[in-house]
User: Fold these one by one.
Assistant:
Number 1:
Amino acid sequence: MAKKLKEIMTESGQSLEFQSGGQAPETMVDREVKKEPHPRVKKLKDIYMDTLSSANNEFPYWYSREYFMHDGEIPVVRRAQALKCAFSHLTPVIYPGELLCMHKAAFFRGSFPMPWLSEGYYMAKEDEFYQEALERGATSVDEHSKFGQGGGNVVKSFGKVVSIAGKFGMRQEEIPVLLELAKMWYGKSVDDLGHKYEKMVPEYETKEKIMRNIVCMFDSGFTLPQGREVINYYYPLEYGFDGIIAIAKEMKDKVAGKADGDGMVGMNRLYNYEAVILAIEGVQNWISNYVKEARRLENLEEDPQQKQEYREMAERLEWIAHNPPRTFIEAFQMIETLHMAVLNEDAISGMSPGRIGQILYPYFEQDIEAGRLTEDQALELLELDRIVKTSIDCFASMGVVGGVLSGNTFNTVSVGGLNKEGKSAANRLEYLILESAASNAMPQSTIALLYDEKLPEDFLMLAAEVIKTGSGYPAFMNNRVAQEFMMRQYGPEGMNVVDTRAWAIGGCLETSACVWKPLHVNGKEYWIPGGAGQPTSVGVHFVSMPKVLELTLFNGLDARTGERVFKAHDKKLDTYEELWEQFKLYWQETVYALDLTNNIQHDVWRKNNMAIINSMMKPDCLDKGHLINELGYRYNATFNVESAGTITCVNSLAALKKLVYDDKKVTLDEMKEALKDNFGFKSAREINSFSLMDQEKDENSGKWDELHFATLQAPKYGNDDLYVDSILLDWENFFCPDCQNYESLYGHPMYPCQISVSTHGAMGAASVASADGRLDGTTFADASMSAYPGTDRNGPFALLNSAAIWDHSMSQNSQLNIKIHPTAIKGVEGSRKLLDLIRAYMRKGGFHVQFNIVDSKVLRDAQQNPQNYRDLMVRVAGFTQYWVEIGKQVQDELIARTEYEGV
Amino acid sequence: MKQENNIYRDSRNYAPIDVAKGMDLRTKKIVLADETDPNFELLPKCKNCVNFKPDSEKIEIGTCEASMNDPKFTAYPDMVAVTCAMYKEKK
């Protein structure tokens, strides 16, 4: 019987599914805290749970029809005309019981393609355009990405439903027009035009090899060009849509025909204001169509309560289509509408609502005081909002939606933090947000708690209780560290300490620039925070550190494919220092090539596909008359370099240093041979599984047993061991400042972003074995500060010490996931222990920590019996997702993580 | 105008939940998209519009004769047209 990796790791003293600090009970233990939502919410949630991810062509049809009618028009106006037409023609759909309405497309969980961004990935396979697209390096990642096989993913075609990209269902009747529209955009999309011009970059060939061999996970400019940012609802809340149109008309009169000293783009202000007016009119038409539908349903309805709800819905929508909201529910509906409007404007993941508890508080406070609203009604609306946000899908390729996002779209809500005066910003509505996250536990909105020592103890204890539901949220982010990062990155653009306090999380955990604006509700002024920065997690996406190390060891060759990616360095790598220096050179070559080519993609995007709705909402576009593409945002230094596989790479460097250079137990050539031979294990492809648990030893091979054992026993990150932690420190002290050597298309230096999302699965699948003992094709350690499964053996505080060895404020973020057994934090005492653990990390300077409170036995059972676990949620990287909607390789990595039995 | 099969996804009495099913707005029951609707009420779709001209060379593709594009823009019979100002039902 062939030995499994799990057994071999156990023998080496580093078992997968390691239980640290005690022994879990033999029986399965459920999560301690379980709550139920309001009955209305439960009914709609039940619908969601049985809903398929669905797509249609309504929006792209009307967008394309209008766009192609205006050949020769100024690009921004042409795009606004197309957007207006598309919004005006979206079919409204309202479900009984909804209080907050309006959907992306005419489905409960709908989305649609945007061929003006990219069209090749969903073309029919026999189509010549698809074949041409296949030759591009960027499509390699789709082969290494897997969706979960359950939940709402349409993984296979059935009946009259066609599966697209393994996730979206589309009616068979719509496939011909899907292809017809895609062909219209061939050669014109951001993807195609960007490709045409990126080929002119001298480093283009290197970039293609980088993409083909999954050194980098995906392109930036045409995949998800916006997002990982915080939206700003201020202007519509303050002025209403009619008010914004009035401002734009007034500004048009002021700027028409004038450059005002700006000979480059000063004249563009006229066209930009015109575009804003057109786009808003489109959104108003969209709302008005919902008004008509609500009225139609009111007339059809016989149930008096439902009839009244339709009537009130129509009245609310009618009001907010033109005016600033007056009440909590009107304001909530308006931000919901704006959110969907922005998401329909572009392919976006991570458009975070930000601190909605503080944005909606003025309405909440006044309604409660006036007796128009009860806390229970507010809680019900917050629960409903979680269904709305969880239903948001983004139509993109398998590699992007599956391999990176695991189907999540990261509409993160932030709570806590500080107010403009530097005091705790937590308010009563934020307590209700936390309660709703427990009573209606769904993947979105994920909650980010902006931790500060000034936050009230009962607020933090409530957050600990929510964590114990097993939802994976709230994640804790360090306010002090974030403010320091803000000053470092945005100080040169004029950010001051007061505005650093307005920050929030965009996307899963991207620290995002925000500002304070004065909101007036019924004559009272409130300062509310909102996004003021461009998208983040744009620029250079997910560079695989273990892959760069592999290329360093194999003299520029990809050991898996045999393809030459970089020019041979021809160094002997006789010393660790020489290895380290060469690793850094290849890293820089990778980032440089990706920076240049992705800058071109984004530049094409900004010329033809610029944001209009999102832009007009962000300070200071309306004031300046410039949109995102002309640096209209307050903060524009938002492009970054993303690393992946940090800890796998650090552990591998430590093993090489120890075994090859310090102890000389093995030569570098022998180590390389062992890596290519996968330490005598069958290849993941051979056994057709990339999961950690399934890896099998080749019975006939014992050649590398001793070495593999030694690599597993080499020093590992997460144990407060300076031998390996100092390598992490060296990496961070190189990587963080090095990012500033690369410039975005907006002329600003880049910065580091250290999250993995789900890339540790797909990137691991494309990498040979590594010197830390990890096998070919298996996942890397998740996140950037999480230990590799089973290797953190000295307790949680040792892990925290390892993670906090470097200055986290040099980076936009860092990410640490910890798995804890429910019994370890049982009761109030357990909640306090959990809070103490979090505080300890924050005080050490750690930026982020989040928890999976789950018994690994439950996860194993869920893998065997997925039909019993439709609503089981887990924390993957920076987000929560339904267990059944994530791929098996990531599921196995989650099961294998160390489970803490005590804190 | 009566549809051949009077299925839900061609009926106004239906709120699509996803590509396979939706809600009967009278009974509030979840129904299959291709099931017959006993209370069928014609949903405006391009295939029911006088402006839709099928393309004999292609499947599920035609042109919208009301479009202002030159040449006339593509249309597809299954598209919902409740928001289209140019929709004119075939008699």
Number 2:
Amino acid sequence: MTIRFLRGPSQDLRRSTIDNTKLIEALQQAEVIPLGPATRGTRYRVDSSMIDNEKLISHLVDADGRRTELLAQEIRESAQGVYHGKQSAAPMPTITHPPNGWMRVAAEFIFTKKTVRGVFEPLIADQAYEWSEAVAEGRVWKVRWLTIKYAALFGVGALAQALSALKVIAAVWKSG
Amino acid sequence: MADFSNIPRLSAKEAAILELLIARHEMYGLEVVRASNGHVKQGTLYVTLNRMSEKGYVESRQEERSPGAIGPPRRLYRATGYGVMVFEAWADMAARTSLFPSMEPTR
């Protein structure tokens, strides 16, 4: 007999092949048991007292879409034990300082206050905006990519600003 | 033939930015880059906006922050009345003469 959850991952739980790790994921996503740690390698225990029996039964439907109490006991028994955190979830890096904190220091050292305010502060604000968006979405590689991208954008901006200043100097030189 | 000699110079990038700011009223720098379909690059955007601000084509203000917001405040840019006039004159000039690059749609 096939049992599936109304919510959570779209997987079937077959009587003979209940995969305990997938079962725990399904139970967590259906909020039948509290969410355990998602970080790789973390161990946590699930016991019968953590399982909300009413929720478990309310989420189970048979192959014809009818609610069923069948297998609830078996699922409760199968779900008990010690589990490891998700193998696929890479831990987010700890935020100890803002990304590319050197940019403001470098800009203030090289350029005038007016240029820093007009050119580099908006760039730093964009970086913080995009960076926090990526962190909120848990996109580790985007976070890393943005750090590199904005370092490069700072370089391009600094070069463009320097060239712009040189053009002004050249124009003054020619007119003089 | 019309005399265009007294129209302030406007680069293609400045024109693309002004066109977007006039159409959308007020935008963040990042929105300008995303809306321009590659016509405006993020690396040189703020240098260009800063230059346009000095010329009086655009003005900017800091965004209003909600309590608890993190990160430095972003800037919102809009075209000035002078900027709109210059853009319209430039667009008219570009449409009338083949000596100048024709305007390409940025949206």
Number 3:
Amino acid sequence: MRVFLIATLVTMPFVAAQPPAAGRSEPMNAAGTAKASAPMDITGYWVALVTEDWRLRMVTPRKGDYPAVPMTPQARKVADAWDPAADETSSDLCKAYGAAAIMRLPARFHITWQDDNTLRVDSDWGMQTRLFHFNSSPGPPGERTRQGYSNAQWQRPASLKVATNNLRAGYLRKNGVPYSENAAVTEYFDTAPLPSGGQVLLVTTIVDDPQYLQQPFIVSSQFKKEADGSKWDPQPCTAK
Amino acid sequence: MGSTAVHRKISRSKIAMVGGVLLCLGFCQTAAAQVEITGSWAARNHEFLTGDGLPVDFTGIPLNEEGRIRALSYSESQLAMVEHQCQGWPAFYFVQGPFGLKIWSDTDPLKGNVISYTIGAWEDRAPLTIWMDGPPHPSKYAEHTRAGFTTGVWEGNTLVAYTTHMKAGFLRKTGAPSSDEASLTTRFYRHGDILTVLAIIEDPIYLAEPWILSRSFQLSATPLPPIGPPCITTYEGSIGQTAPHYLPEKNPFIDEMTTKYGVPRDAAIGKPETIYPEYRKKIPAAQAK
């Protein structure tokens, strides 16, 4: 027994220290509600910090201005045919506000628990609502929507993974860079303290779309937490 | 030995074993709460972080007034001067530059723990070593270098690095300045084969508030080089009698972002309020389209 005990104590650190996978983002045990088992709190008001890609996000780029998007030739044709006037007169002004692009918009986001297993993300610009479903199977696909269907999973030790599909086709950028309805969006939500106080939310977004993207489109966006909703300013979608 | 004595002995052993395992788990949790970040991480330049397409592009950088004046006085022709050609960029540049990251670790040969991680160099960027064995940051009077001095700790699965002692340089190649008091906090998040780096740059001399950037890299099976090509100076036609510069109010490129991309001047010159969404309302509609 003593030998076994010593062997256990000696080998345990090495055994346990082996990462189960190189990336080591294990899903957490689904027992209990998502709210109760949340390893991090991302609820609250978050403001986008437009510190990168400013000219592509704060103003609508001109037609043909698509730097850094790995577009397929087919996507380029579609984007080259972008007609903002036609978009403006259509019933859907929100093509650039879908799940594949919304976290890159210069907007505020309000994150709340809709219920014990559903995280709700509202945007003020575009007035969109995303629902992140924990502990649920999506069931048969329903009607495609701008925000699609999102499955959410906490990751150890403190991260959130969200996988979204069943999307309506939309724009990755406001000047008509397309994504198809078969696009799949994977997002990781992480938080960090600011050295001088406050909190940052980091969202890594990966869009897979073999039809319009030559490789997954990967961007990361950062948000700063606000004390309250005093700057919340709902504005409808705009096509231009 | 009676059955009671045997039972007591087994119980003591069990208690010791459970205690040991619990103790071990506490230790193991710390040891295991790390991810592998070494390897070759390919650039996925789907974000335009270099931001050096036009001479006066300070968009997204919350410069203070002094930083703005310095930025507007900069002329890229300075890089033609022999003494500046190989000056390189500060540590921030590993997040902004177009290259991937080659990261390796050095381990203590006896204990096996990681002493440091190193992010390989490029032609215009020095290697960045993240010391994991807990050395204190040097005195503020100590030598400042391009890469600075960096320490790191694991917070859960996130590597957090803190860099000080960088030489004065540039926040962006277009001339937005950084002082030798600037610091950089980087956090490395790994999710599968994606490595996202969050960079928080603070500079009490030239920034009105922290400049926060992030960028993602993808694990590459193809090894990236740990160094770049050597930087070799050469005569580029600049005669060394003057330092190329502009008077800040006479920078000839100040409105180029406006005419080419519809970016208002306040945003192009890095006014802090322009990094927040509400600034959209101040953008003239004709420019926003």
